[in-house]
Amino acid sequence: MHTLLKDNPGEQILMLGNEAIARGALEAGVAFTSAYPGTPSSEIALQFFQISQENDLYFEYSANEKVALEIGIGAAMSGLRVMVTMKHVGLNVAADALMTLAYTGVVGPLVLVVADDPFMFSSQNEQDTRWYGKLSGLPILEPSSVPEAKEMVKYAFDLSEQLKLPVIFRTTTRVNHSSGVVTLGSMRERITEGSFEKNPFSYVCVPAVSRNLHVKLLEKYDQALALANESPWNMMEGDGKWGIICNGVSYSYVKDILEDLGVTDKFRVLRLGFSHPQPGGLIKTFLKGCEKVLVVEEGEPYMEEGVRNFAQKAGITIPISGKGDDLFSRLYEFNPAMVKKVIGSYFNLTFASSQPIEVSDLSEAPARPPNLCAGCPHRATYVAVREVFGDDAIYPTDIGCYTLGLLPPLSMGDFLVCMGGGVGTAGGFSRATGKKVIAFLGDSTFFHSGLHALVNSVHNNHNFTLVVLDNLTTAMTGHQPHPGVDLSHLGLSHTTVDIEQVVRGVGVKKVITVNPFKYRKTVEAFREVAEFEGVSVIISREICPLYARGLPDHKKERPFYVNQNKCKDHRVCVDKIACPAFYLEDEKVCINENMCVGCAFCAQICPEHAILPVKKEGKS
Questions:
Q1: I need a surface site. Which of 121, 168, 227, 567 has the fewest CB within 10 A?
Q2: Of 3.40.1060.10, 3.40.50.970, 3.40.50.10260, 3.10.20.740, which CATH number belongs to 3-228?
Q3: What residues does CATH 3.40.50.920 cover in the chain?
Q4: Domain 560-613 has CATH 3.30.70.20
């Protein structure tokens, strides 16, 4: 039985933040779940996927975030309790549905978990989801710790049910990927069958209907505002004259720092967990007892601007600061040392700064730039593309493992904005420059957001080559399935959608499928499309070696080694391929047999044929 299914109230378990969120949903009786995987939210979906194999919880990995939300909407409108999960940039994709869902509201509760990524550990931007609260008029909840995340999720379902609105549950990486001790609660009965009652004049958003629905949304907003002002998730602590307003993980930092400095008696702290609508009444009450206030929040000055606004309306003229020179930055994650420094500076507190450990006597650690894994088929594709097109072509790329081809010597990435953007921008680059354009797109991203741009390119007679890097999984986020993945080994009967058939079906005339580890044939395929006018597609298909290891029919290939008697030290293997299994020993190229997966790609590149399979274990 899955750990999160334990029905043992009171038991304490160490959980990842994402596991705690999933457990909270289960305790709230969630019946229907959907997601598109994206760090730092991915582990929530993983729990639901695993649990759905054991009981009647419904879960699906949807083609993209918009579809995931729409699937969830259908279930919520039928009365089921629903959770949809995604990362922050995924909400951009789902926003079209979300904005109008705020008007229709929901019948059953729907909690939308959106995981922000300050510092962009795994993201292309660090946008702040809280602005979507203002944009949509929907409530936002933000936990400060792992145990609180579990409990707050349960409240999110109750709040959604009370207001008949979806609720945004906003997290950040530090909550998603921290671990904490969680106390199990009781499990609510899960109801998995709903019914839909037709009400077109409340649910079909033509202009006349939407005008009425907007009025109702504003009424629900006022209800949410009243709840926020009284919410126990918005906590005032202390009675000092210096005020700190904070949210999320920043609250944990502030609490620890004030205790560490022994100044809790000088401060009062307002933690906003029910952060939108901003509880103006509570904030004004808090400000009236303060001489000056510091707002501690990662990301944008969302709370700070609101606090200033409430202070101005109430005629409160105390100093209120947050972002600015010598204060907090809008950039990146906070850490305790940073928060401590700003609190000390702003309130003129003196304390002994901790000194970093002396490391001047240690050698500098070598740089470890992100790299494609040993045996990654994307590397072989990139080497073939570079052999044919060199630096002359323009290479728009996309989001996935293959983005790691950006760095030398592969240098396969000239522009990147969003998922599916590689295909869309390719047409623009081609039209504007007249140069050959090679766009890269992963298999999961093909289904997520590549199809529309491909259809557009065919229709508008653009001229570029799209390379679909099909490694038969959603690799970067943890090997989740997508519509092109065969799931029969899991006993699942999902229909597998063939990428080549789809490409031909939308009108692409030139389509070639290659195995990138058959290097010469792959190069020939790229030479063929080099002369083609119009949209051409090469599907480079070979399974991700890390994913393959977990499949029941996986056969481990023999690793390779460098025969030093044959090697002439050309270093073509290192300079052209840069597989991390290579290393230098006494200035000679060697292969780490523990890292090598036996793909044999480097053996095809070596001009001296000095790279050979290991004949037997322990002997080269």
A1: 121
A2: 3.40.50.970
A3: 231-346
A4: yes
Q: Is the domain defined by 231-346 classed in CATH 3.40.50.920?
A: yes
**245 band by pLDDT with thresholds 50, 70 and 90:** very high
Report the CATH number of the 377-549 domain. 3.40.50.970
Six-digit token pair at 26? 């289960």
| Mean of pLDDT values over 477-487 | 90
- Residue 617 clears pLDDT 70, i.e. is over it: no
For the entire predicted model, the pTM comes to 0.91
User: Which ranges in the chain are annotated with CATH 3.30.70.20?
Assistant: 560-613
- Of all helices (H) and strands (E), which one includes residue 135? helix 130-136
Better-predicted residue by pLDDT, 476 or 518: 518
What DSSP line would sit under 354-404, residue for residue?
PPPPP-TTSPPPPP----PPTT-HHHHHHHHHHHHHTTTSB-B--SSGGGG
By C-alpha distance, which of 269, 283, 271 is closest to 240?
269
Which token pair is 416? 């990147």
Nearest alpha-carbon partner for 397 in 373, 374, 434, 372: 372
Please confirm whether the linkage preceding 40 is cis (ω < 30° from 0).
yes
Q: Is 406 exposed, middle or buried (0-12, 13-18, 19+ CB in 10 A)?
A: middle
Q: Is 220 helix (H, G, I), strand (E, B) or coil?
A: helix
Name the packing angle between helices 88-104 and 207-230 (round to 10°).
Answer: 110
Report the chain's mean pLDDT, rounded to a whole number: 94
pLDDT reported for residue 491:
87
Angstrom CA distances, 87 to 44, 184, 197, 246, stand at 11, 26, 32, 22
- Which one-letter DSSP state was computed for residue 449? I
Tokens of 221: 């907003």
pLDDT (mean) for 354-358: 81
Q: Specify the pLDDT at position 493.
A: 87
Q: What pLDDT is recorded for position 119?
A: 87
pLDDT band at 3 (very low <50, low <70, confident <90, very high): very high
For residues 159-164, average pLDDT? 98
Q: Of 16, 19, 17, whose CA–CA distance to 6 is shortest?
A: 19
Q: What confidence score (pLDDT) does residue 620 get?
A: 46
Sheet of 510-514, strands arranged across = 438-442, 464-470, 535-541, 510-514
Return the amino acid letter for 287.
L
Kindly report the length of the chain: 620
Say what the pLDDT of residue 397 is. 95
Across the range 40-63, mean pLDDT stands at 96
Residues of the chain with CATH 3.40.50.970: 3-228, 377-549
**CA gap 346, 51 in Å, rounded:** 49
Query: Are β-strands 234-237 and 58-61 bridged in parallel, bridged antiparallel, or unpaired?
Result: unpaired
